[in-house]
Design a protein that fits this description.
Number of helices: 6
CATH class: Alpha Beta
Number of strands: 14
Structural class: alpha/beta
CATH topology: Rossmann fold
Number of domains: 1
Radius of gyration: 18 Å
Oligomer: single chain
CATH architecture: 3-Layer(aba) Sandwich
Amino acid sequence: MHHGNEKDNGASCHTQDAFEHERMFVLPQGNHLLSLMTVLRDAKTNSTLFAETTERVGDQLIAAALDFVPAEKTPVVSPTGSTYQGMRHTAPVCGVSILRAGASLENAMRRGYAGPLSFGKVLIQRDEETCQPKLFYSKFPPNIASQRVMVLEPMLATGGSACAAINVIKAQGVPEENIIFVNVLASRYGAKTLFSRFPQIRLVTAAVDEDMTLSNHIDPGLGDFGDRFYGTYDS
């Protein structure tokens, strides 16, 4: 399994010297992905281009995450009349968006998965008095406990909201090992926090940054994902 150590192709000096875990999958750090991440990280990128680029990274993330969803051999007859031993996903999948940014990955899930698919929503915000994550809203399909669950959350900074969301999902009867956390950018701290609380989940991400700012933003990061995706930042 690839854990994010970039292959030496002579064309890039980017490295991915970050936290690793046996249940973490970091997308291969090739020049195509790095070019997309450069667009996302560039402060000059406008909201339209940011959203379009997120869709392209999301396609890669969902494709990688789906490799962890059960599939069975499915023979089909090709146009030449020969039998091809193919594969087809069999497990129902539920994508749970941590609002609001997580919804940015839903279209990629719809494009990428041809099997039974449903969606859930979780809204978690910080309580200003306690400074702890607080659940404000959740909605799940009634049979989520029997589905493979992909938690959609582009940014994993401290891990507080992510852990709160996973607790809500587990409370619905979803086994921890059936949860895949799909993420655009994680901090080393956030990834360690996630696995310290939930060692059996899987994390699929496009990049891991080593540092955090004093205000707990991923550094170098890409700014406030939701504001940039939805165009709600100050101009």
